[in-house]
Design goal:
Blueprint: E1 3-11, H1 21-28, H2 36-48, H3 55-73, E2 77-85, H4 92-101, E3 106-111, H5 121-135, E4 138-141, H6 149-164, E5 174-181, H7 185-190, H8 195-209, E6 214-220, H9 234-245, E7 249-253, H10 262-265, H11 267-279, E8 282-284, H12 293-306
Parallel strand pairs: 1-2, 1-3, 3-4, 5-6, 5-7, 7-8
The protein binds ligand FEC.
Residues 12, 14, 25, 28-29, 42, 53, 55, 113, 120, 181, 183, 223-225, 256-257, 261-263 line the site of ligand FEC.
Catalytic activity: Fe-coproporphyrin III + 2 H(+) = coproporphyrin III + Fe(2+)
Function: Involved in coproporphyrin-dependent heme b biosynthesis. Catalyzes the insertion of ferrous iron into coproporphyrin III to form Fe-coproporphyrin III.
Binding site for Fe-coproporphyrin III: 12, 29, 45-46, 53, 124
Amino acid sequence: MVKTVGLLVMAYGTPYKESDIEDYYTDIRHGKRPTDAELQDLKDRYEFIGGLSPLAGTTDRQAESLLDALNDTYNDVEFKLYLGLKHITPYIEEGVKQMHEDGIEEAVTVVLAPHFSNFSVGSYNKRAKEEADKYGITLTHVEHYYHQEKFIQYWTQKINDTLNDIPESEHDETVLVVSAHSLPKGMIEKSNDPYPNELHETAKILSAQSNIKHVAEGWQSEGNTGTPWLGPDVQDLTRELFKEYGYKNFIYTPVGFVCEHLEVLYDNDYECKVVCDEIGANYYRPAMPDTDPLFIGAIVDEIKKLF
Ligand code: FEC
């Protein structure tokens, strides 16, 4: 007999229209409204990348691809898709409530972020569980998939393809910058959070499996909280690496993200490129996983381990 199981795909969320930006930013700030200057700064960044972020559409396509791949993989289960966003509707709680209304008693949850931190994936899972407990829905959480073979294969191929665009004589003057979203340092250290180590592991595996000779680890997109965040920041790192080694080519792989959005299109493609232009180096940023079968397959393989 085929049983129906919920597939709760969780993601950051993005404004759907300009007038959503203020509430979205307020939600990110745990209910504290940004100042007019902060709000304008965010609006300007969205404007710079074309008005709004492509994230909403991509999240939908990634979720649909995962649903199809899972339903092709399991013969005895029919997965039904629900979306749960962190900072905008449909919020995580709304997705879980909808599962209950549809009679779902068991679900698998996945966050569209490959590394685990108690303050990222852990907080999505906590919200989903708190809501699911109200209805007696049993959840199986995917915690991370950065180590899955297909995820590594995806990035290894992208790095090698990018290297192929760079003359071989310059490979020794090329560096790979492996990065993820920064988080406040105090919070991470106090709780012995696995997040920094998971990024470190990713960089180590990519260094061993791809043809790149030089690899550096960095953090990006840090917020404005007045407290220290995990570093080095990718822009500072670019300057330091250039100063110390004189690299000619910088390849950025923001492996903590899974598609193009504000933090990649602005923080990498604009801010890091500005630094590369300033020092006279070439900027490369391979395509993000999006709905690539290797990426979707990596999540399916992780789910197969757990469910
Ligand atoms: O394209 C888009 O519209 C949305 C892109 C976007 C993604 C994303 C992912 C992560 N964030 C994480 C942590 C924080 C912390 C703060 C914070 C602030 C922002 C702001 C915007 C924003 N984040 Fe985000 N994040 C994205 C967008 N993020 C916009 C607010 C303006 C700014 O600071 O730039 C700081 C909160 C505070 O001020 O107190 C912390 C983490 C991820 C990766 C994991 C995940 O996707 O959940 C961690 C995509």
